[in-house]
Specification:
The chain is of the alpha/beta class. The protein folds into 2 domains: 169 residues, Medium-chain alcohol dehydrogenases, catalytic domain (Quinone Oxidoreductase, Chain A, domain 1, Alpha-Beta Complex), CATH 3.90.180; 136 residues, NAD(P)-binding Rossmann-like Domain (Rossmann fold, 3-Layer(aba) Sandwich). Helix content is 28%, strand content 26%. Bound molecules: NADP nicotinamide-adenine-dinucleotide phosphate.
Length: 334
């Protein structure tokens, strides 16, 4: 069985190796991997920037889909032939996160999906929505569940307004889920062409954050008192504008740090306006399943920006680094 692994950090060290197949134990399932999608985290992990203490070798990538090819004794949740995805944190099935549950994530610290096959507990698997292909399904476990969790935790209602940053994976899922909820979406991007594509997907207002550096103020001007929710993927470099955009009593869902992990901030507007800053770390399996029901009923299809062949996986990582993509990057078997 072939697997991509890093034996030392750095994208040039991502190589295919031969590995012995793992045995399938009780309540475990062997999945033949058909497609994998990339998250920014996978790039950071490969380069040793996500967790420099990560034990190596490691098979990267949390997100993938495939077909069940073998089940162990006592397995009841899936059967041979089922199309499945792996849940991001294998041990987080429901409820509040704990440190123990959060230590069960695929693609670090546990081996991930960028391999021919993987043996997982049946409790860490989720069935693919019937309307999706393997490639589409592979995009869901991290970015989509995170976006779903952000909107859910803020209880985004029909008629409310959400501000989305950029046109990466998390933001475009948040756009699709916001429209499904009947909410209004303002989206930013460095590219007018990407803004036009986001509008074609349902975004109501587009703001170029390069030509409009005060994009938070601009977003606020499209509302009565500010947006109800910001899906914050920029972090340090964007938080100030996000606070400026948010209405009194609104929420900033802090998800990513694309624009920096730290910053100096004037905090008084947060308390004076009763703004809630909510950290979001993906979500649990039951949330993933609830999201899938909405995807099937709503007929949603993830936005795949580009697809790479299995043997060209390192190129896919390079494309993620250059930030030209729109939506998800997928690595697929022929
Ligand atoms: N907390 C969690 O559970 C969780 C889960 C998933 C992801 N994340 C994090 O969320 C972030 C986004 O992840 P992703 O997978 O969506 O990444 P992605 O697909 O690589 O998104 C990258 C896009 O973000 C936009 N962007 C970059 N810098 C920006 C800035 N300063 N302001 C506004 N937009 C900016 C750009 O869009 P344009 O080209 O349109 O400008 C870029 O193409 C990452 O930091 C990731 O690690 C966290």
């Amino acid at each position: 069985m072939r697997a991509y692994e890093i034996q030392s950090f750095g994208l040039p060290n991502l190589r295919q190796v031969e590995r012995a197949p793992s045995p399938v134990g009780p309540r475990e399932v062997r999945v033949r991997v058909r497609a994998v999608s990339l998250n920014f985290r996978d790039l950071l992990t490969v380069n040793g920037l996500y967790n420099p203490k990560q034990k190596l070798p490691l098979v990267p990538c949390s997100d993938g889909s495939g077909e069940v090819v073998e089940v162990g004794t006592g397995v009841t949740r899936v059967k041979v032939g089922d199309r499945v995805m792996a849940s991001f944190a294998q041990g987080w099935e429901s409820g509040a996160p704990t440190l123990e549950k959060l230590r069960t994530t695929l693609g670090g610290p546990r081996d991930g999906m960028l391999q021919d096959e993987i043996v997982l507990s049946e409790s860490g698997l989720v069935k693919v929505p019937s309307n999706l292909t393997f490639a589409e399904a592979a995009t869901l476990p991290c970015a989509a569940v995170t976006a779903w969790s952000a909107l859910d935790q803020a209880n985004l209602q029909s008629g409310q307004t959400v501000l989305l940053q950029g046109t990466g994976g998390v933001s475009l899922f948040a756009l699709q889920f916001a429209k499904l909820r009947g909410a209004r979406a303002i989206i930013t991007s460095k590219s007018d062409e990407k803004l036009a594509r986001a509008k074609a997907l349902g975004a109501d207002i587009g703001i170029n954050y390069t030509s409009t550096p005060e994009w938070g103020k601009a977003a606020r001007s499209h509302t009565e008192e500010g947006v109800d929710l910001v899906v914050e993927v920029g972090g340090g470099g964007t938080m100030e504008q996000s606070i400026r955009a948010t209405r009194p009593g609104g929420t900033i869902a802090l998800i990513g740090v694309l624009a920096g992990v730290s910053t100096e901030l004037l905090l008084t507007p947060v308390l004076m306006q009763n703004i809630r800053i909510q950290g979001v770390i993906v979500g649990h399996r039951e949330m993933f399943e609830a999201m899938n029901r909405a995807i099937a009923v709503g007929g949603l299809h993830p936005v795949i920006g580009e697809t790479h062949a299995w043997d060209a996986a390192p190129e896919a990582f390079s494309h993620m680094a250059d930030g030209t993509h729109f939506g998800k990057i997928v690595i697929e078997r022929a």
